[in-house]
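Lab notebook, bench 4. The sequencing result for the construct came back, and we need a structural model before the next group meeting so we can plan mutations. Quick request posted to the team channel:

Model the 3D structure of this chain.
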Amino acid sequence: MAAPPPKQEELQPHAVRDQLPAVSYCLTSPPPWPEAILLGFQHYVVMLGTTVIIPTALVPQMGGGNEEKARVVQTLLFVAGINTLLQSFLGTRLPAVIGGSYTFVAPTISIVLAARYSGIADPHEKFLRTMRGTQGALIVASTLQIIMGFSGLWRIVVRLLSPLSAAPLVALVGFGLYELGFPSVAKCIEIGLPEIILLVALSQYVPHLVPLLGTAFERFAVIMSVAIVWLYAFFLTVGGAYKNAAPKTQFHCRTDRSGLVGGAPWITVPYPFQWGAPTFDAGECFAMMAAAFVALVESTGAFIAVSRYASATPCPPSVMSRGIGWQGVGILLAGLFGTANGCSVSVENAGLLGLTRVGSRRVVQISAGFMLFFSILGKFGAVFASIPGPIIAAIYCLLFAYVGMAGVGFLQFCNLNSFRTKFILGFSLFMGISVPQYFNEYTSVAGFGPVHTHARWFNDMINVVFSSKAFVGGATALLLDSTLHRHDSTARKDRGHHFWDRFRSFKTDPRSEEFYSLPFNLNKFFPSF
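Done. Here's the predicted structure in C-alpha cell form:
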C-alpha cells in the first residue's frame, strides 16, 4: 500500500527567524540564582583553556618559569573578568566572555625573538624585558579598536554586512579553529576521546533517554564530563600509567604536569605595571596593531554568533561599534597589567551558549566574578587551570562547531538557488581556509612567513592578517557581496539584505531597546543610532 501524499503544510520550507527559538533563557531572562551560579562556573571552566594554553606557550619562550607562568595566567584571568563585566554592562551588553586571543600570539613571539633581547643571559631579566615590550605594543595597538569603535567608523563597515557576507565570517570564526580541536585531543587520546564521547552522550542523548533529568544533563554536561574524565586522568596518573612514557606524553596526559599549582601564590592581586614600565618599538606596535585589527573582525563575527544564541535580535551597527570600542579598552588593560596577550570574544564561550541553550547576560556576569575570585586566590584557581589540555580540546570540538553553525544558520535568509549566492559563499569559504593554510604551512617549513622582507614589522603585519581564516573569508565575502551586481534588486533580495534592514539602526526595531540599551539611563548621555 502506497504512503499517503504529504500535506501541503509539510511541503513548506521552515520559517525564517530573527531570533533563535527553543532557547531556555534569552539575553534578558536570567535563570534562578543556584542554576545561574553553576552555569557561570561552567563558563569559567570553559574559558580557562585559552587562558592557560597561551601563557604555557609564550612564557617559557620569554624566559619565565612556572612561577611567572602562574602569575601571567592569574593576570590574564583577572583582566578577562574586568573586560567581561565592562562588555556586559557598557559594551554590546551581550553575554560574551572577553578572554585571551590566539591572534596576538604571532606578534608576541616576534617580540620575544627580537634581536635586542637575544643577548640577555639571565632568563628572569629576559622575561621582564620581553613582557615590557609586549605591554608597550599592546597599549599602542589598543588605540586602533578604541578609535574605530567609539568614533563610529566600525559602524559604517558593519552596516554593509548582509546575512550572505556574515555567514562565512561567523562560520570561519568557529570552524577556522579546527586545529585546536582533534589534533590537540590526539595528543592524549586515552583521555581526550572519552571526553568527546561522554560530552556528546550527556548533552545530546541522555536528555531524551531520561526526560526527568534531561534539562540538568543538557545544561551541565560540560561540568559533569570534565569532572568524570579529569578524575579518570588522575587515577591514570597516580596509578603509574605514564611512569615510563615520553616527556611529551606525560606533559599532555598527567594531571600534575602543568606547574601552575606549585608556582601560584596563595593570594595575590594583579596590578598595572607589575612587571615594570612598558617599552615601545614602532615596528612591534605596527605588527600588534595588525593583530588588533584581525581580532576586531573575528570578534565582530563572534558577537553576531553570541547575539544569535542569546535569542536576541541582530546587533545594531552602533552597538557593535560600541562593543569594539570597549574591547579596545580591554586590550589597553591587558597592556597595562601585562598579560603578554591581547583580548577578543571567547569563541568557546559563545559555543557554550548554544550547547546549554542559556543566553542570559547574568550568567556571564557571574562567570566574570569567578574569574576575578580565582585570579586573586591563586592556588585554588591553579587547581582548575591544571585540567589536561586534551580534555579542554575535546570540549572545543563541540563548542567551536556550534559557533560555526551559527554562521551557517544565516543562510536561511539567503536564496541558495542563486548562482551569485553560491559563488560568493563557496569562494569566500574556500579562500578563507586555503589562504591561511598556505601561510601556516609555509611558516612551519621555512620558519618564517611567505612575506619575508628586511622590515620584520611589515612581515608580521601581512602574515598575521592572512593567517586568520575568519578575516580572509569574511573580507572576501564582504567585498564580493558589496560589489557584485550591487544595484540589482534581485541580488539584494537573494543576499537577505532586506531581512536586516530594520536592524541597521538602533531605533527602527523596538526590541533593540530591550536587548542593547545601556543601564542606569546612560543612553541619555551615550545615545545609540
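The chain has a mean pLDDT of 91.
Will bring this to the meeting.
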